Every structure is written in structure tokens, then in C-alpha cells.
Amino acid sequence: MAITSTVDTTSSTVPSNIKTTAQAKKDAENAVLNGDGGAMGQTAFLTLFTAQLKSQNPLDPMDNTAFVSQLAQFSQLEATSKMSTSMDSLVKTMSTDHMTSAASLLGKKVSLADGQAMVSNGDPVDGVVTLATDVDSIALKVFSSSGQLVRSGSIGEQKKGDFQFTWDGKDDAGNQVADGKYRIEANTSKFGKQTKAAVSTLATVKGVATDAVTGDMKVDVGNNTTVSMSEIKRIGN
Fold first, then answer.
1. What are the pLDDT digits (tens) for 30-51?
2. How many CB atoms lie within 10 A of CB 15?
3. For residue 218, what are the β-bridge partners?
4. Nearest to 101 by CA among 206, 213, 223, 219
5. Phi, psi (rounded to 5 degrees) for 140
6. What values do phi and psi take at 41, rounded to 5?
7. Which secondary-structure segment (H or E) carries 188?
8. Where are the alpha helices (DSSP H) in 36-121?
9. Residue 182 burial class via C-beta count within 10 angstroms: exposed 0-12, middle 13-18, buried 19 and up
């Protein structure tokens, strides 16, 4: 009896250590997409691009225009990435410069807008009333943080411009007020017409800090009050 064997030639198994061209291309793509949080660097791009060239149809190779287009796109993305890194570095440098500049204000006096006034250690408060026109008189009033009137006074005729004044830190009875935040209002009179004028005061800088949310540089003038550097219009000794 003859013994014969039948070999199935309709199917074959590729050894595990050998990859098809399609699988090699797929593995290269996955390595790019899954590595480094999905970011494509120069090495990753060249790996994927090489796999793409190896996997192309010899009878229908990649068009030269597409080849150049892909290279141009990668070059543009790489340039944008480098520009972003440079901008981040520039922002950090500028932030450091701003902090250094702000630190030079420590111990100096800076202007506070809207009539804010800080009394510290019983020291007098210097201020400025900005007059848009000549006036017949100026009425000044000082209020506590709770809105209580603590001091009032009147000054006669003044010319257009900045009128400088000093509040001695005392109430109408001559008593020294407690340290803290106050507000000074100025009402001018011209031919009997009453008008509110802008008031700014000077306060001593006690510290500097950067706003964690906006990145804005701020100075601390005490009593839980900070002022943005962009709001400072006047600096004194």
C-alpha cells in the first residue's frame, strides 16, 4: 500500500518574527501616535515617512507634489513649535524682569486711585485732587472703611491742575484715627455748581507679587490691599 501525504498549499502562516510591509507601516504609525503624548518630533516623522515610502505601491508611487507637501507641512509645524518654545522663554524672562523692577518700589510711595487712603503708624497721608477747571472752592471729606465721616475741611479758590494736600491722620476732634483703610472724597464748586473731582493718595509699598491667575504684577500697600502696576500713575519717596 502506498502512503501519501497531502500538503495544503492554499494557506500559509507568517513566522512571528517576520512582519509584513503593511504591519510594519501600522506599527510605525502606532509608535508615533502613542509615544510622547501624541506629539510628532523629527525622528518620529522620518520613521513614519520612511515606512510610508516602503509601503507604497511600486506601480503607483507617491506623487512628487505630495512628497514635497508633507515635508513642507512638517517643516512649518516644527518651526511653529520652536517659536512657541521661544515665546515661553521670553515670557518667563519678562516676568523675572518685571519682578525685579517691582522690587525696586519696596519702601517707596505709589499712588492709589479712587480716593483710597492707607493710615499706617499714624503717619499723615499725602494726596492730590485733579481739577479739570478753575474752581471757587474744594470740600474734602474722609470716610472710614465702614462709611463713617471722620474728617472734613474746605479749601478756597484753586486753579486748574493738581491740588496737593496732606491729611494729618486725625479726626474732626483732633484724635489720631486707627490704622487702616479710608476713603477721601473731593467736591468742587464753580459758580454754585457742585462737581466731584478725582482724588489719588500715596501709600508705602510693603511687598510685590504676581497674580497667579492673570500673571499681572501687583504691589502690596498694606491692609490687605494690592495695586496693579498698570494702575500706578505716580511714585514718590
1. 554 554 444 555 666 667 667 7
2. 6
3. 209, 228
4. 219
5. -105, 140
6. -95, -175
7. strand 180-190
8. 42-54, 64-103
9. buried
Q: What is the pLDDT of residues 145-193, one digit of tens each?
A: 999 999 999 999 999 999 999 999 999 999 999 999 999 999 999 998 9
**Contact indicator for 149, 142 with CB cutoff of 8 Å:** yes
C-alpha separations of 149 from 117, 185, 189 in Å: 14, 10, 20
> What CATH code would you report for 109-236?
2.60.40.4070
Identify whether the C-beta of residue 208 lies closer than 8 Å to the C-beta of residue 150.
Answer: no
> Is the CA virtual torsion 225, 230, 233, 236 positive or negative?
positive
User: Taking the domains of the chain in order of start, what are their residue ranges?
Assistant: 21-54+63-102, 109-236
CA 21/CA 25 separation, integer angstroms: 6
52: left (phi over 0), alpha (psi -120 to 50) or beta: alpha
User: What's the CA gap between 106 and 208, in Å, rounded?
Assistant: 8
**C-beta atoms surrounding 112 within 10 Å:** 25
